[in-house]
Amino acid sequence: MLRTTPSIPIPRTVPLLPLQDRVLLPGVVTRLQISRRDSIPLFEKILRTYDSKELNKCIIGVFPIHQTSEKKIPSVVAATGAETATKEGSERSKTDTNTNGQHGGFTDDMAIGSNAGQVVPFMRPKSNSASGGNSQSNSSTHRNSSSVLNPADVHTTGVAARVIRLERAVGGFSVILEGLARLRLNKILVQSPYFEADVTPLLDKAVDKNDQELQDQITILRSISKEFISLLQDLKLPAPVLTQLQKFLENAGVIPGQVVDLLISTIESTRDEKIMILDAVDLKQRIPKAVELLTRQIHVLKISQKVHDNVEGKLNKKQREFYLRQQMAAIKEELGEKDGAEEDELTIIENRLNAAHLPSEVQKAADRELKRLKKMQPASSEYSVIRNYLDWLGDLPWNKATEDLLDVERARKQLNDDHYGLDKVKRRILEYLAVTKLQQMKGDVKGPILCLVGAPGVGKTSLGRSIATAMGRKFHRISLGGVWDESEIRGHRRTYVGALPGLIIHGLKKCEVNNPVFLLDEIDKVGARGHHGDPSAAFLEVLDPEQNSTFTDHYLNVPFDLSKVLFIATANSIDTIPAPLLDRMELITIPGYTYAEKLAIATNHLLPKQVRLHGLSEGDIKVTQEALLKVATGYTRESGVRQLEREVGAVVRAKAVEFAEAQERLSKSEGTPTTASTVVEYQPLVTAADVEEILGQEKYTNEVTERTPTPGVVTGMAYNGVGGGILFIEASQMPGKGSLQLTGSLGDVIKESAHIALSWVKSHGYEINLSNSPGQNIMERVDVHIHMPSGGTPKDGPSAGIAMVCALVSMFSNQTFPATTAMTGEFTLRGLVMPVGGIKEKVIAAHRAGVRKIIMPLRNQKDVTADVPANVREEIEFVYASTIWEVLKEAFDGRIVVRAGIPAAALDSRL
Ligand SMILES: Nc1ncnc2c1ncn2[C@@H]1O[C@H](COP(=O)(O)OP(=O)(O)OP(=O)(O)O)[C@@H](O)[C@H]1O
């Protein structure tokens, strides 16, 4: 009997424990669950033969078996085996009793690494064998089995192991074994109830100091073990492994073969690799194989330590999730399970980005996000956020533009075709286009931003559209009314849920080119500073030709060059546009239309358009000029023509119904007619009388002509951004104590005008015969109330000053003057009449309302001559005044006279 290094005698004949999916190596202690029916009898026997103190004297041979070992064997073999077993069994128990139990240095609970697992049984034992019955019952089970271990499947190298602990367990036994030394299988002697074999122990030889090759190998093993230990230090390895390794490193009499076996059972290795080590009896073969496996393990450990540091140490939950997802993706890729659809989607995005010819800065951002996207799970919310972002980058026209048609003649024709009148405006637009053309020829495209200012419906939007058509550019309208947040223009940062780019970038995506005409509609309605930034501040950048080449939307977070975009703004009034923004724009004012102009627009543009829209042909409807004028005067009261267009549309609609009905009647009787002329009873002509029938009673009558003059009521003139109009000022007095009451949604400035007017009238009451003595207070026993009807419309500004004076004088003097006389002008406390704005709109609107005499500041005379259309001028008598005395004289037609005895010089000195 040979002894292993730890001096344990190993018998020549040992019972075999077959291991199907595990390998026990010498020097290793492991726990096994025994449930194979061909092994259970062995442990039944051991349990019967040894008491617990002597158990470690029991030596068995643990041999790997090959995976295909389940075979049917003839019953005669089993019977032969059973006979041999009886004989060999008695010999064995004798031998076992003589063994000397020295311990290899490992304790019961030293199951190392992955070895403490379950041995997968070939066949599950029946419950009676599990409960431990006797050998008789087990052997009978074995005999009844048709599937047993084939001797040829037992590997030729195994390990002698001693039993350290043996317990019954559910389904069999739980045993702790310690591997002692390699065994060579010489011959299977007995096959039933368990295998017994003739074996030769293969002990590691003492190292030959003169064998240089072996010495070199040991040196390598030592250095690699050193590295391994230092890596293992943090891991909770069983102490004996470390002890053995340390001893080996210290050169303290440890046989390298033992170290190799121990290490291989410690590290992650496959069953085949372990069998390879088991087979390598010669140290010179075993050490290189072990070094190879150990090197691999060190590599793995280093990576996992790095990951451990990164993932466990620093990363938060989200990052760890990401890391795990990444690993999952890597595993999927390894397994060839990458989702085809997902890959396709990524390829599509990538291709789209490539096709978009992104500027380098944008390309970098896109690459970065694409890289992130590739590592993500498509189901994650972040995936869709990044995907959306990349979609936006891919969809924007970074380099796409339409070719400009900067032909001034063509543009002139386009503007004339689309719009009637507006000569000044068209001229200015053509100048602008000509300059842009010249600038482009020099390579400089930074022109001013146009802002079309005018009342609703005067054609601002349609002018913008015409400009785009004339230039051959795409047109996009951005409606700014009610935009309160900067983010609506500039987008939300991607950190917000559901973030999107702002209106500018949206517009560019829609246009698909980077040089469209953007109409910033109603820029005056952009809300003042809201809770989330000032939207008009964003426009400072957008509209500044110096800055807008690097416009950065919050969502995109990369600059987009807006310098090729032609911005045209529109506004009803410039009052609410912040000064810095106003400064960036070139204003083009579009005044309201006179009735004559409206008539021409209705005839040449609105009517043909409506006829077309209602599916009729040119000859199907003929509206007389008289009828059109009636529509304009009786059914609309506006500076623009939008309402007029609607009313004309209503007339056309009514005629379309008539036409369709007539067609139906005719087709029922004769067949299908093709034109109106062939339709019986249908009359294409629309006269003024028809208009009233179609549109109902006139909505607007001539306001002023039908008003009877009343003391205290004066016709004023207003201009409030949405156009001009007339404005009545009503003053009335009542018993009281001299207070002034003002109503009608009046602003501060207009209220001040009322106070100034009253003060002047009070101070000049005696002079204009309103009181009987110079010291008398005309307000002593009265209160005065000034009201301006249309209380729902806010009114402000100083231009009602002279009208208020006249209203008060009229009230106090009980004198009237015709409502067809209107007036506008700021008034100072000293009686001066100051010029006011919006003359053209005011005059046109007053003319529309039936005013035939207008009193206005002398200094506004030039505005009348320059801006007011000749036909309007012809129908109105203009009176220009520089002092209130002149105003009173003209308004009251000389009925308000200066008290006799007051020298004119005295009056003048007061002025
Ligand atoms: N001078 C004109 N010649 C022909 N049509 C006109 C003219 N002015 C306005 N229109 C027509 O009147 C309608 C309203 O014009 P548009 O919408 O351009 O007004 P707008 O000034 O932009 O109004 P808003 O300020 O309310 O946006 C359009 O159909 C337009 O073609």
Automatic annotation (TrEMBL):
<dbReference type="GO" id="GO:0004176">
    <property type="term" value="F:ATP-dependent peptidase activity"/>
</dbReference>
<keyword id="KW-0067">ATP-binding</keyword>
<dbReference type="Pfam" id="PF00004">
    <property type="entry name" value="AAA"/>
</dbReference>
<feature type="region of interest" description="Disordered">
    <location>
        <begin position="80"/>
        <end position="152"/>
    </location>
</feature>
<keyword id="KW-0547">Nucleotide-binding</keyword>
<feature type="binding site">
    <location>
        <begin position="454"/>
        <end position="461"/>
    </location>
    <ligand>
        <name>ATP</name>
    </ligand>
</feature>
<dbReference type="InterPro" id="IPR004815">
    <property type="entry name" value="Lon_bac/euk-typ"/>
</dbReference>
<dbReference type="InterPro" id="IPR008269">
    <property type="entry name" value="Lon_proteolytic"/>
</dbReference>
<keyword id="KW-0378">Hydrolase</keyword>
<dbReference type="InterPro" id="IPR015947">
    <property type="entry name" value="PUA-like_sf"/>
</dbReference>
<feature type="compositionally biased region" description="Low complexity">
    <location>
        <begin position="127"/>
        <end position="150"/>
    </location>
</feature>
<keyword id="KW-0576">Peroxisome</keyword>
<comment type="similarity">
    <text>Belongs to the peptidase S16 family.</text>
</comment>
<feature type="active site">
    <location>
        <position position="842"/>
    </location>
</feature>
<feature type="compositionally biased region" description="Basic and acidic residues">
    <location>
        <begin position="85"/>
        <end position="95"/>
    </location>
</feature>
<keyword id="KW-0720">Serine protease</keyword>
<dbReference type="InterPro" id="IPR027065">
    <property type="entry name" value="Lon_Prtase"/>
</dbReference>
<dbReference type="Pfam" id="PF02190">
    <property type="entry name" value="LON_substr_bdg"/>
</dbReference>
<dbReference type="Pfam" id="PF22667">
    <property type="entry name" value="Lon_lid"/>
</dbReference>
<dbReference type="Pfam" id="PF05362">
    <property type="entry name" value="Lon_C"/>
</dbReference>
<feature type="active site">
    <location>
        <position position="799"/>
    </location>
</feature>
<dbReference type="GO" id="GO:0006508">
    <property type="term" value="P:proteolysis"/>
</dbReference>
<dbReference type="InterPro" id="IPR020568">
    <property type="entry name" value="Ribosomal_Su5_D2-typ_SF"/>
</dbReference>
<keyword id="KW-0645">Protease</keyword>
<dbReference type="GO" id="GO:0004252">
    <property type="term" value="F:serine-type endopeptidase activity"/>
</dbReference>
<feature type="domain" description="Lon proteolytic">
    <location>
        <begin position="708"/>
        <end position="894"/>
    </location>
</feature>
<feature type="domain" description="Lon N-terminal">
    <location>
        <begin position="14"/>
        <end position="298"/>
    </location>
</feature>
<dbReference type="InterPro" id="IPR014721">
    <property type="entry name" value="Ribsml_uS5_D2-typ_fold_subgr"/>
</dbReference>
<dbReference type="GO" id="GO:0016887">
    <property type="term" value="F:ATP hydrolysis activity"/>
</dbReference>
<dbReference type="InterPro" id="IPR054594">
    <property type="entry name" value="Lon_lid"/>
</dbReference>
<protein>
    <recommendedName>
        <fullName>Lon protease homolog</fullName>
        <ecNumber>3.4.21.-</ecNumber>
    </recommendedName>
</protein>
<dbReference type="GO" id="GO:0005524">
    <property type="term" value="F:ATP binding"/>
</dbReference>
<dbReference type="InterPro" id="IPR003111">
    <property type="entry name" value="Lon_prtase_N"/>
</dbReference>
<dbReference type="InterPro" id="IPR003959">
    <property type="entry name" value="ATPase_AAA_core"/>
</dbReference>
<keyword id="KW-0963">Cytoplasm</keyword>
<dbReference type="InterPro" id="IPR003593">
    <property type="entry name" value="AAA+_ATPase"/>
</dbReference>
<dbReference type="GO" id="GO:0005737">
    <property type="term" value="C:cytoplasm"/>
</dbReference>
<dbReference type="GO" id="GO:0043565">
    <property type="term" value="F:sequence-specific DNA binding"/>
</dbReference>
<dbReference type="InterPro" id="IPR046336">
    <property type="entry name" value="Lon_prtase_N_sf"/>
</dbReference>
<dbReference type="InterPro" id="IPR027417">
    <property type="entry name" value="P-loop_NTPase"/>
</dbReference>
<keyword id="KW-0346">Stress response</keyword>
<dbReference type="InterPro" id="IPR027543">
    <property type="entry name" value="Lon_bac"/>
</dbReference>
